[in-house]
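Appendix B, example 12.
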Amino acid sequence: NLLALIWSGRDDWYFGVDMAVYYNPDESAFVPDGFLAVGVNHDTGEKGRLSYVLWGEKYILPILFLEVISEKYNSEYEEKILNYQSLGILYYVIYNPFSGRRGRFKNRQRLEVYKLISGKYQLLESENNRVWLPEIGLALGYEKGEHIAWYREWLYWYDQSGNRYLTAEERAMNAEAIAAQERQIANQERLAKQEAEQKAIRLAERLRGLGINPDEV
């Protein structure tokens, strides 16, 4: 999870994937494709969370629900948006990888982020395929990249200036590239030093050939 890198020093958040969110003991749980809760313990012990139970989390609602449109449509634009609105989820995100290509919702935006304002969801404007979420302190967006040896379009987190946070693989590659560059510079410096020393030796030999002691020059 990229958030584990971005928020490595924090223990007040949790991101769940395909996990049941129970909000009422008498009602069925919601199971979004992903959700983010802030203000809860990240580490809950060895077993972790098997589900997110609202009354076991001090009634802290997740701040964001994420749904991804798949081949089988699951009412993300109709039923779910109304359910999550009534539940009070601040941000509802729909990522549609079929946008502009095919399917009944090809004319939808690729990334739609709704914010709960006065009890109603309002679609937020995106900039450069990103939407800033001030309550979270991050922007959510998409672009193509390679992850787990798979090049495709992915959702990413960005900072307020629009800079994408790098994955663990990218950080490792950058670190290796920097180390390789440092080794190259060190090798060039070593070769330059050797060349200078050889030039000094040749010059000293020439001076001696002219009867001049180079140590006295």
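Residues 7 and 161 are 17 Å apart (CA to CA). Residues 168-209 form the longest helix (42 residues).
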